[in-house]
Amino acid sequence: MDLKSGLPFWLIKNGLAKDYDTLDENTETEVLIIGSGITGALVAHFLCEAGVKCVIADKRMASTGSTTASTAQLQYEIDVYLHELIEIIGEEKAAKAYKMCLESIFTLQKIIGQMGIDGEFEMKSCLNLASDKTGANTLRREYKARKKHGLPCELLDKKQLKEKFNIDRELALYNDCSAIIDTFKLCTQILEYHKKKSGLKVYSHTEIVSIEHKRNGIVALTQKGNSIKAKKVVAAPGYESENLLDEKVMRLHSTYVLVSKPIKEATFWNEKCLIWETARPYIYIRSTADNRVMVGGFDEPFYDPKRRDKLMARKNSYILKRFHKLFPDIQIETDFYWCGTFGETKDGLPFIGEHENHPNMYFALGYGGNGITFSVIAAEIIRDLYLGKKTETELFAFGR
């Protein structure tokens, strides 16, 4: 699948990372991870730290799938509001999912510190703006649900928003527990760290075309005819994971993103907080380390790459108009733009763990707008499953 198009900012900013060899012989390992994006890298991190030998195989150049198209906003909010998720799966489970997402942000901050890498991780505040009266009512309900369960948030009224952020909206939810990163940079740093420290083997341009299940594990066959024997396999090739399943568990969508030329520090809104809206279609906004504005949204159901790409110019125009309506005094010029494909589930939660029809396999798919926070959660769960430890699987199980 063509997961993205256009000119993703992260690839230009960082340059292509070191490519890895293509597998040209048979090999064995404890765990085979399919996919070298941020999910595969984090799974490898947690397993390697536990002393498990891993091999990563990717049909592309390492880390150049959906990871390069990520806007890398780390928020504990799930695509489905907490008060809505409560109605779908129940109060206890919904609150737990939100708290796990919150904890994952601090987990990522901790492991970045432990590895001595940066990934341009930075804690940020976050504003969820009411786009109209209906949105304001939604945020009031959401505020009550979050406060009841001890989640960090404040409700800002029209006067407070104007005074603090110079934003003319009726209402907003605010928290100071969000973050931003450079996902591509972080991903490549993790792979290199464990390649040197843990003996992690990463193979680029190595497509897995079949998986044969054995009594004591699996044998994966590559397109070039080489085999990889492993006790377990982790399916983490982004939104292409679903190709390994017989059932359809998520809907694909496309999102459109543009990045401005650098602007003066004094030009930015207060705190350079993350911003998103209650409106549908909505936009989301963040800054970058070199003082650019990244703004995206106006998501579309994904049908095929050509249709997605034809909409790019029109979507960019919509995105800029919405941004200037919110910040009429901030003038930006587009420097980069792209669109990417992501998966969405009915309840906004991913599918993580085992599937009854696929022995010796762990899945991590269906991330929506919370790709990185859910990747952290998936990596921890998969590590614990492999080690035979008790872990949270019910929330994210197939067939739930």
From TrEMBL:
Domain FAD dependent oxidoreductase: 31-385
Gene Ontology CC terms: cytoplasm
InterPro entries: FAD-dep_OxRdtase (IPR006076), FAD/NAD-bd_sf (IPR036188)
Pfam families to which the protein is assigned, alphabetical: DAO
PANTHER family noted in UniProt: PUTATIBE OXIDOREDUCTASE, SARCOSINE DEHYDROGENASE-RELATED
Protein name: FAD-dependent oxidoreductase
Species whose genome carries this gene: Flavobacterium pallidum
